[in-house]
Each structure stands twice: as C-alpha cells, then as structure tokens.
Fold these 3 entries.
Entry 1:
Amino acid sequence: LTFLGIESSCDDSAAAIVRSRPGQAPEVLSSVVQGQTALHAAFGGVVPEIAARAHAEKLDDCVEKALDLAGLRLDDVDGVAVTAGPGLIGGVLSGVMLARGVAIGAGKPLIGVNHLAGHALTPRLTHGLAFPYLMLLVSGGHCQFLIAEGVDRFHRLGGTIDDAPGEAFDKTAKLLGLPQPGGPSVEAEAALGDEGRFVFPRPLLDRPGCDLSFSGLKTALLRARDALVAEKGGITVQDRRDLCAGFQAAVAAVLAEKTGRALLSYLALSPAEPALAVAGGVAANRAIRAVLETVSSKVDVRFIAPPLPLCTDNAAMIAWAGIERFRAGLGDEADLVARPRWPLDSQAAPMIGSGK
Ligand code: ATP
Ligand code: FE
C-alpha cells in the first residue's frame, strides 16, 4: 500500500508518501514540511487566519513535491490520508478540502486521521512496535500519557492540566531573552549551568496519578529572575545558564516521576513486548530523553525515540496512520468533516456528515 498524507492542523503545511508492503518495514518515500514561523514571528504567536491562508497556498505545492520526491504520480497511490483534527479549524479545513478534491479526482479512498493518533502510531512506522505500548506525547501544544492498544484504541492515563512543556520552554526563553523556539536555546544554556543553584517547584508530585502541571514553573522562574534584577540590577550570563539548568531539571524530574507512574499502570496490562515511546518536539531534549531512558530501563521497558523529523509535526505519520486505518477496515470517508476538538480516547471513527 502507498498512501499520500496531508497535514495542516497547526503552523506546518506538510505532505508525505509512505509505502508499506507485507513482510517488509514501511518506508517513508518522501516527507515535505513547510513551516510558517517567519509569517507569525511579528505577531508573537500563531495567527489562525494567516495560518489558514498560508496552508491553502502551500499545501498544493507540498503535495506536488512529495509526489516528485517519491518519483510517483497520483495514480500510483492507493489512498489519501488527511488530518481531520484536532487543531486550528481553518488549517484543518484547508487540508481536508484539498485531500477530498485529490481523492475524489483520482478515485482513491480518503481517510481522516486524528493528529494525535498520527503521533501515537509513529513508533509502529519507525520501529514496528506491537500493541500495547506506552506513549508520552510531549510537545509545544500537548503533554499526555497514552496506552496505544490498537489502531483506533488509545487509553489516556493523564496529562498536563495547564501548559505543555514545550510551551514552558518557549516562555522561559522569552523571559530570559533567548531566541525562539525556546527548547533548543534553553537546552544549550542549561548545558553550561548549575542545576543545583535554583531549585524550582516540582508540581503535582504529591498527587496520585499521571497528571502534570508546568505553569507554576514559569512563575517561579520569573520570580527568581526578578529577585536577581532587584538585587544587582540585571542578570549575568552565568545567572541565565543556572536559571535554564534549574528549569530544565525541574521539567525532567516531573516527567521522570510521572513516567514512572504511567509505566506501572501500563505494566499491569502485562504487555508482551513492553515499550515506552516518545513523540513531540520536546523529545529532542537530551536531558529529558536521558531520564526517560533511565526510568524505563529500571522496569525493563524498551525506550523508543523516533527520529526527530518524525517526532515533530509531519505528514508521514498521517500517511502511516491512514495505512493502518485502511488495513483495519476503518474506511473510506468521502464526506469526513474537520473537527477542531477531538480527544484521542473518545476515538471513534471520524463522524461522517454531521457537524461534530
Ligand atoms: P503540537 O505538535 O503539539 O501541536 P507544536 O507544533 O508546538 O505542538 P512540536 O513541533 O512537536 O510541537 O514541538 C515544538 C516544541 O518543542 C516547541 O515548544 C519547542 O520549544 C520544543 N522543543 C524543541 N526542541 C527542544 C529541546 N531541545 N528541548 C526542549 N524543548 C524543545
Ligand atoms: Fe503535533
């Protein structure tokens, strides 16, 4: 099976071709991602109207490039998969309308994919993981623990009750005058800092379960910075490094503790091939990866981190999820609808026709 995938739920327009043959590892034949960072930079955040228009303009081009790079024509693909939600409605609609046009025009099946399911199924594309496996989705917009039980079955163990960790990294960078995206710049500073100098709160550790919170961390960091400024009129290069190191250590500690708990719930299912996989941009962070690897190995669970371009938003994960759904008989949805909100564990097949 060869599928075209289309993704436009946030600020990346993407198209990709994935091929899967029985008995062989699936292949990403092409994966094109066009970001919009420059377009939104002046506004300090993603502007929905600008995102929607940019998707409408760029997606055609992405699809053409993805086909070219794969050396295929539309006729050669067996189906079209598109992100049908959750996300910014204008962007999702641009993708769904294009995908519908392409699928109907070429007489191919059309599969609607939940963006989060795309992330959650990625370790099966890259490592052929067997169900059930534990998934930590940790990005700029999300933070949740999921047990992936089947192509269409995800059980949410817990997640952030406020900010996502990536967002916390981005806000930290902003507070300290470091470039965006904040993750890589804070990580680089943290590597040169002393994580013991500022000890930031580890929220919700006293509460049972796998829920997390990151918004308090930002407040604590702001207070520490302001205290330094009040004391000596500004912060030095070393202060900044130490603040970053303390912040990152707090995020890593919270993720490690909650991942340990999620692993215990998961292991209660007696999985045949126990594995923890990560997705999302924050999975790029080496300190965070290292603690996740440690907590998994303590309980003999394999730790999987897919290559970064497949961890962040991309269309290969959507094409792959389309293949998985198609194989599972989760069909052809010529009139699928876009859904701005679509929690993963209420994952029924996308609704057909009706507005929600
Ligand atoms: P989503 O995909 O959930 O809608 P998103 O598009 O913001 O959200 P991604 O593209 O997966 O998420 O990841 C981007 C986020 O990852 C940013 O917040 C960025 O700061 C963070 N990030 C990237 N690299 C690192 C790093 N090395 N350490 C920590 N965070 C990082
Ligand atoms: Fe995403």
Entry 2:
Amino acid sequence: MTAREPSHLFYQSRLRRPLVDRAEGVYIWDVDGKRYLDGSSGAMVANIGHSNARVLETMRRQMEKATFAYRLHFENEPAERLAAKTASLMPEGIDRVFFVSGGSEAVESAIKLARQYAVATGQDSRWKVISRMPSYHGSTLGALAVTGYDPLTAPFLPMMREMPKIAAPRAYLDRDNLSPHERGLKYADLLRDKILEEGAETVLAFIMEPVGGASTGALVAPDSYYGRIREICDEFGILLIYDEVMTGAGRTGRFLAAEHWGITPDLIALSKGFAAGYAPLGAMVAHNRLVEPVLDAGGFQHGYTYAGNPLACAAGLAVLEEIEREDLCGNAERMGSALKERLELLMKRFPFIGDVRGKGLLLAFELVSDRETMTPLPAAQNAYLKLVDEAYSRGLIIYSRRTRGGREGDHFMVCPPLIVTREHLDEIVDKLTDSLAALAASLGL
Ligand code: PLP
C-alpha cells in the first residue's frame, strides 16, 4: 500500500503523508527509505526517542503476562508502581494519580475532579474554569471549553459552555516601558480582574500551560507571572490546574515546568512525553486534600475503560526510568539552550524571523513581515504550511500553527527528542536554514 491509494481513514484534513516504515532514536524512515529527523518529536511526544530497546523489552515482557485487566476487577502492579513513581516526581502533597489515555482526558479529569471537590465541600456555586486566549487544552468538549483557539472551538459553541478567558501573557508583543517583572504582574492581574468580574464565588479553577504549546508557540511568561497567579488563586480559594501535557516529562529541562518557578499547582495534567509515544497514556495528578472528600462523598464519577491498563503503565514506568537513567531533563536543558542560541543566530540572516522563544527543548520561532512592529505575514501566504513542506522535503520534521485568537501569526515548534546530540542539532539547523532560504525565495521575503 502507498500513501497515494484511496483510504478509508480520515483525520483533520485531506493532507496525506508518506507511510512510515520504522523509527529509531531521533529518526523516522518512510517505506521508500527516506530518512527524517523528527525535529518535533511527533507532536512533542517522543521525548526519549523512538524504539528504545529497554522500553520495548519491558513492554514485551508485560505483554506476555497480561495486556489488559479491567480496573474494577483487578489491581495491577505496573499501575501501582507507575503511580508511586509519578507521585515521587511531583511537588509535595500532589501525590494522588488518576490514569487516562491522553492529554484531553487528563484535562477533562482535572476539571471534573475540581468540580466534584467543590460539590463535596459545599462550594456548589463554583463551576467556572478560567483559561487563557490563546491556549490549547484538548479536543473533548470539556477541554475544548477552556481552549482559547477560535478555529477549534467556534463550530461547537452551541454545544458547550464557553468558559471565561484572559489574555495569555504575550509580553513579546508589548511595546511599553514596563520591566519584565511589571509585565508579568500586569498579565497575572488580568486573572484577578476576571475573577472579580465573574464573581469569585462562581469560579472553580484557573487552567494554564506553564509554557505554551502549539497554540502560542512556546510562550514563556515573565518570571513574576507564575508566583502572582498562585497568590491570586489562593486569595480567592480557586484551584490552580497546570496543563503539563506538553511541558511535562522533562521537555522544558525539568521534569515539570512548574519546577522552574517553584510553583505547586493543585492539579496537574500529564500525557505526551509521559509515555513518549510507546502507549496511549496520561495522568491527572491531584493534591490528596482534593481526592479524599470526593471519595468520601460517594466516589469520583468519572473514568475510562483503558485507564491504568498494565501494558500502558509498564511502558510509562519504563519511560520515566529512562528519563532518570539518561538524565534527559539535564540534556533537554543543555541542548535546549544550545539550540535556542542557534535559532537566535538565524534571526541575523532572516529578518522575517520575529521572535525565538521557549524553554529547554520546547522551542519555537515566529515569522513576521516586520520585526519592529511584529506584523504577521499575510495569512494568504500560508507560510506555516510552506516552511513545514520545505523542511519535510529535506528530511526534517517541524511543527507549525497559524495562531488565531487575539492575534494571528505563523509559528514553528522545534522540539526534537530529549536524547538529541550536538550533531543532531547541526543537522536540524542546517536543514532549517536551507528551508528558510527556500521559503524566502518563494514568498519574496
Ligand atoms: N493539553 C495540551 C497543553 C496539549 O498540548 C495537548 C495536545 O496537544 C492536549 C492537552 C491534548 O492532548 P491529546 O491530544 O493527547 O488529547
């Protein structure tokens, strides 16, 4: 079968890509033998690289024992051990783990636990979950309600309860005289204003990606933002949910991005790098003080059939062990700062790169028609698709989005697996440089 034959499959669009043959380390080969450097770890998933022998061996051993045992009929050891390992990597007190099969489910679960906690503790009036524009928290209707990305949410507005939004801290666009510290506080105080506008007694939680994902292109807030958000949530008794689906499992150079700012959220959503593509797996991790009242009040009215299955959990545990054994958080920090410097150097050669940002190996750059004013490229130029295709033809995979929600713009995620070496960085930057030159020639930039 080739990718060009008609298919019964469908996804988001008519886009068809080559058939994958095999994957190893940072590379993927298609059936024609062409090799691609996975410069975005798929969708920022394959953190430990592809086909890791130790993880495969663990999975093989688990498969020979039991692939599935329903959680209402049996406990299983991989789930117990993965929960304990996960809890050991969380901030103090965040030690109750609820397994799911992906990021949307993890976010959905966090919102539902928060709500059931409020009900169980006599705070029934609290139901609104404030989030940011732009942001991405998943595809299920609950996760979508807190997502700030118009093209994804607009068709479903009549079906879901849209949640209040505040502007994401896109401080890099601001042309004012504020210091980074003041800017961070200014953006965080938008939350305070929104809580007062909505009525604090109606607000349940605030959800944020500590470093933005594809919706904002690796947006990092000024340092002062993070602590101030925590203070505001505490002031009004509002739960703080960190969506670490993309940032978790070492991607930003710490196991959790929250560690960079010493923040302890109340709930954390994990997926993607948590099982690094070896199994569909995610987790919602909560403070024990939220879980106990819900269990006492009759139980958490929520769950998924595949949750906590032994095969996925065995894979997840092997992945976390690999992250520790190979110090992949440390490598993400070291290789991330080297790659960021190289991307910043590209700004000298290509004036249409407006900004380079991110943390660890969650990096992005944004294209603009004028760096001074940060004017986006015209949408009709479709730069976000064209540059990806240029890179693809050269055997490099990067991830792009045209942001909508507050402001439009083309940005590109450069997020290779956390196992990358300096030689891999050379290959990424060389191929990216050629791709940007080709884009400049074709769009007359
Ligand atoms: N939250 C964030 C921050 C994400 O980046 C994503 C996926 O990109 C999700 C949630 C949803 O995860 P999934 O696609 O596994 O449902």
Entry 3:
Amino acid sequence: MTSAALESFLAELERLRDAAAASLAAAVDAAAVEQARIEFVGARSGRLKAVQKMLGGIAAADKPEAGKRFNDVKAAIAELFAAAQDRTAAAADAPGAVIDVTLPGVTVPLGHLHPVTQTIRRVQEIMAGLGFESVDGPEVEDPWHNFEALAISPEHPARDPLDNFYLAVARAADPLLLRSQTSTVQIRVMESRRPPLRIVSLGRVYRPDTADATHYPMFHQVEGLLVEPGTTMAHLKSVLRLFASSFLRGDVRVRFRPSFFPFTEPSVEVDMEWGGRWVEMGGAGMVDPAVLEAVGYDPAAVSGFAFGLGVERIAARRHGVDDIRDFYRNDVRFLRQF
Ligand code: DAH
C-alpha cells in the first residue's frame, strides 16, 4: 500500500514531466529552450529542485521507490532538453528560419551607362549603318602620329610643348604625349590598310585647357575617315547630314564654313542647325594629298574626307546640357537623367 505522501509526490513528478514536455515542445528557438531549462531544472529555483525537496517527507519504506521514480523523471526531462536543443540549433541553420518571406524585398539599385558612353555607342551604331567600322587608337602617342603625319609643322602653334601633355617617363629622343586629337587614328589606320576605307574612332583627347562650361582638359572626339576613289565634299556633307539627323532626331541641316586644318584641303567648320540656331560641332575637310602621300597612298588614285566632332558637344546638344563639366562631376542626380 502506498502512503498518501508517496502518492502526491508521484503525482507531482508526473505533472512536472508533462509540463516540461509541453514547454519544450512549444520552444521555437534556443532562447525559449534556455528559458524552460531555468524554469524546470534551474539549480536554485527550478521546479525539479522543489519536487526533490518533497523527498524528505516520504516515509523511509517508500524512499527507494520515490528515489527511483524521481531519477527516471529527471533523466526523461534531460533527454527532452537535449532533443529540444538539437531541434532549435538545426532550425537556426536552416535558411528558412532567418528569411521572412513576407517582408518586402530589398531593391538592388541598377546603374546604367554614363551619358558619354551612351553617346559613343549611339554614334558607333549610326556610323555602322553607314558602313563605317569602329576602330581604336592609343591615347599615348608619338609626335609623328599626333603632328607630323597630319602635316602639323614644327612651327605650328599646336606644337608648343606647353600646349600638350608630354610624358616625363619618355626618353627625350623619343617623346610621347597624350594625344590632343583623334585624327591620329586616321594615320594609324591608313598606315596599316589599303583603301577603300570607312572608319570611325571615338576616344579621349587631352589639352591643357582651363575647365569652363565648354572646355575640359580631357574630352572625347569622334573621328571619321573615308578614302575611296572619287570621294567629294558632297559625300562628306551627306554623311554628316545623315549622321546629324539620326543622332539629333529630325531633319537636321548641316552648314560648312571655310576654315583651316593642316591635314585637310579644303577645310571647313561643321555647324548643325539646332533649335533654330547654328551650333559648331567640329571640323572636317578633304584629306590633304600630302597626308595621303605620307602614309603611302596615291593621291591621284584615291581621295578621302575626314571629320572630327566633339562627343560632349553633340551629347550636350542632344540632351540640353549647358555645362560639359556636369558630365564629369559624377553627381548621380545628374547622371540618373540619361
Ligand atoms: N582634329 C581636329 C581638332 O581636334 C578636328 C578635325 C578637323 C578633325 C578636321 C578632322 C578634320 O578629321 O578633317 O581640332
């Protein structure tokens, strides 16, 4: 026969085991398991400890039975803890546990090409449609390609050492400079190929200009060159007009004004009509026979035209930008508009 004290002790043990099992089953993370651990098996005021104290009131004859049952429940609760700890640790590692799919997503900001790069690509596209292949040339040049082959004589003001960026690392006998114009690429292409030729080259050029709304020490040019038998100024004007109409959209008129460039004869300034005004976009002309000869072409057999336009200038016109420095400030509020 079991005594009343033993009965209530065993009932209390049952309750304790059930409560611990329920509590651990409900624990969703390590913190909740720890909370339950303190409540049930905490060394100072855990509920198991309180039940253990009841052992003192049990009759000596019932003690072995009570002690055994107490140890069974204690072991069962320890097992439940171990299982709960494993479960919550595994859940913390699972990706589903840390990603709340109901939260709004984080938008990754998408960039886009710089307006100057966009302009370069658009020009290449339009000129490709007219049969012009896009080629590259070096930004570090020798005086032959930057000046001599383009018939820019040693006395020409453009040759002033202070008007150019010479490289200090180059040997005095073999000077090198940052190219001041993309016309250098005309020479590089003609030196390595035979006519007929239709090329464009777009890239950076450098001049020691003070930066203002229309100048910058580094800017970009579009160089165009066509060499074929029978080329005339009429072809030049048609190509520029087709280009202007495509790039600026609409039927854009082109005007030539007499000018001088050492490597073209005759030479012209190119204006495009824009918003009811004539805007200067660059220079052009028929390739000077002296230049054709310098690269080994026969001026009696072929003729050509060349043109050079400012990339920032045409981009500014197209987008209504009135200060080219905005292209280089890297202010995203400006760049975002393109
Ligand atoms: N290279 C000239 C400059 O930078 C622009 C130019 C003029 C290019 C006439 C040409 C040309 O190809 O034919 O001022």
